[in-house]
Amino acid sequence: MDSREYFDRVAPRWDTMRQALFSERVREKAYTVAGLKEGQLAVDVGADTGLLTEGLLQRGLSVIAVDLSEAMLAELKQKLADPDGLDCRLGKAEHLPVDENAADHVFGNMVLHHVGEPSTAIQEMVRALKPGGKLVLTGMGEHPFEFLRTEQHDRWLGFRRDDVRRSFLAAGLLQVTVDCVGECCCAASEGTGEVASVTLFVAAGTKADGQAL
Ligand SMILES: C[S@@+](CC[C@H](N)C(=O)[O-])C[C@H]1O[C@@H](n2cnc3c(N)ncnc32)[C@H](O)[C@@H]1O
Questions:
Q1: What's the CA-to-centroid distance between 69 and ligand 1, angstroms?
Q2: Of 49, 56, 75, 194, which is least packed with CB atoms within 10 Å of its CB?
């Protein structure tokens, strides 16, 4: 089973699964770091069933919700009842279906560890930002829990904060910060009962005015 098949399969029960993994405080942290303004356009990469998207719409932003799973986007549309300002697009983080210099904010909450090529995805997210726009990624710190790879289709066992910072700087972002969210992602193995508790980071950076990518 590949990643897309896995997420298609879990889409109907993702909201319940998500509540056990991490709390809504993660998205609040991402919003605070981003500094949202009504009327702005945000891209939510790996939008899933719309945890971030829903909050962004409630705050008066328009959202392009991107996910590789058609089933996830179907759940999102059904849950949010197709409101004004929502544009769902099937696509991959490594090749975003978004014009360059389009968005005031690009978010990716808990998606980087599922992406085949994280550096390429970060460059793509920067491409989609307007000059002066902000990329905010929340995700898992480095951890040793192999069962997340085999049971939840994680491709990466989290990331070191220094590596995330380097990828942001390499993509040309300025004012890069990588901090602790102050929350953990918790999961128990269905096979062995092993329990993972992994710290979460929030990384942010601003696209330079006139930055050509
Ligand atoms: C753990 S969930 C993300 C959680 C979600 N952002 C939230 O806030 O609840 C991972 C999501 O990313 C999607 N995904 C995985 N790999 C992706 C990729 N390469 N490009 C775009 N979406 C991807 C999956 O289909 C799934 O919906």
A1: 8
A2: 194
